[in-house]
């Protein structure tokens, strides 16, 4: 089971992302912003890049070699593309795309 950081400013979407991560057999670590906690204790991230804290969290995870799935309401700009992300999802997106992206970078949970 992987510990997956979820950074999403909207409570309803955080709840939905939490459910997707749990359905895949992983442990969500939900935060409204990317601040706090030790990125070394996380295995991956699902991160909204619309604010600076999400980008900071994504960069920290990538520095540690952890995969990140990024999402936003607009396509990735140059600053976001500079992060070596596993997938970038433009909102709104079907949940199966998030499931597929996470499954491609994480071992199947037992």
The name of the CATH superfamily reads Response regulator
Span between termini: 7 Å
Name of the CATH architecture? 3-Layer(aba) Sandwich
Within the CATH hierarchy, at the fold level, what is the topology?
A: Rossmann fold
- Total beta strand runs: 5
In spatial order, strands of the major sheet run 2-1-3-4-5
User: Helical percent range?
Assistant: 25-40%
CATH class membership: Alpha Beta
For this entry, give a set of tags:
about 110 residues, Rossmann fold, five-stranded parallel sheet, 4 helices, 5 strands
Question: How would you describe what is shown here?
Answer:
This protein has 110 residues and is of the alpha/beta class. The chain has one domain (3-101): Response regulator (Rossmann fold, 3-Layer(aba) Sandwich). The chain is 36% helix and 22% strand. The chain has four helices and five strands; from the N terminus they run βαββαβαβα. Strands 2-1-3-4-5 form a five-stranded parallel beta sheet, with helices on both faces. The N and C termini lie close together (7 Å). The mean pLDDT is 91.
